[in-house]
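User: quick one, sequence for these tokens?
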């Protein structure tokens, strides 16, 4: 199952991008044996970045067709890392070919994304910058893969 992060904004560099790439590389190496991955980043830069509806349209357009769409949203479901790992494995085993994690901009996600997604997922009650959400999500995907592989990275 191919994994995608579809997110508003474009990275110009910095430590958050370096950390994201660190986890994305780890995912790519580990994912081959688990039939999960690689993790691809699709950056979306709409004309008006403060218009949630325009952002939502651009995000959905950049999402691979027939993807299982997960909206990262503060009102979404929270999961333990082990639950997230089991969820990824079950979607893979059900034959899902693509999973897209959709991350909105500073104003959040538009209704067409949050109402049309198959799952709303929250990384916690706090609000996080959308560029940092990419890093946190990549780390959680890596952690989930290590759990599935029986790797000692996750110590719970």
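Assistant:
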């Amino acid at each position: 199952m191919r994994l995608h992060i579809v997110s508003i904004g474009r990275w110009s560099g910095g430590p958050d991008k370096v950390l994201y790439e660190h986890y994305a590389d780890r995912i790519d190496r580990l994912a081959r044996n688990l039939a999960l991955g690689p993790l691809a980043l699709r950056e979306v830069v709409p004309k008006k970045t403060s218009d949630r509806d325009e952002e939502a349209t651009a995000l959905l357009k950049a999402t691979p067709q027939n993807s299982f769409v997960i909206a990262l949203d503060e009102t979404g479901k929270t999961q333990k890392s082990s639950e997230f790992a089991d969820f990824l494995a079950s979607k893979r085993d059900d034959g899902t070919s693509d999973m897209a994690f959709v991350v909105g901009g500073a104003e959040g996600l538009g209704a067409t994304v949050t109402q049309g997604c198959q799952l709303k997922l929250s990384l916690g009650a706090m609000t996080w910058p959308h560029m940092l959400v990419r890093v946190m999500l990549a780390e959680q995907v890596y952690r989930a893969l290590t759990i599935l592989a029986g790797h000692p990275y996750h110590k719970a």
